[in-house]
Amino acid sequence: xDVLVDFSRTGRIGPLTCGMSLAExxxxxxxxRPHPAHLMKGPxxxxxxxxxxxxxxxxxxxAVSGIWISLRPGSAAGLPPLVxxxxxxxDATVLREELIAALxxxxxxxxxxxxxxxxxxxxxxxxxxxxxxxxxxxxRDEPAPHRDRHHLIALHRHTA
Length: 160
Hints:
The strands form two sheets. Strands 1-2-3-4-10-9-8-7 form an eight-stranded antiparallel sheet. Strands 5-6 form a two-stranded antiparallel sheet. It is built from four helices and ten strands; from the N terminus they run ααβαβββββαββββ. The chain is of the alpha+beta class. The chain starts with a helix and ends with a strand. The chain has helices at residues 2-10, 22-29, 36-41, 96-105, and strands at 33-34, 48-52, 55-60, 63-70, 76-78, 89-91, 109-112, 121-127, 132-136, 151-158. A hairpin with a 2-residue loop joins β3 (55-60) and β4 (63-70).
């Protein structure tokens, strides 16, 4: 939870930040797994991501333009040691109420993100870091508890 709250408050994950070069990120994390578009069209294709388990970095002009932490309720999220020191997995079952309570305790302001709140999904935007948290009901194949409550599925920040 500390990693999620810190990212929500600062828009950074340790030294990872939007605007840094992909080369700098790979120096810190090791080689990422590129999206197939990078493999087919070359490294200069924009708007696609590189992944390190549950961490995604969106790349535009060979720089990080977005940071994502993807979660699947009822499972464990694999994250690089730089992101989650001392462990490489995080319980990916985070209820909406749990994250909001943790943000409130940390003094991290947030507001409803109306653009991504609809049907079985809800979203908040943290302030001033502008990190977006997206919540949804668990899918049929996700062995999550509390199937009637919203779980965190993604936490992300974009600059481009």
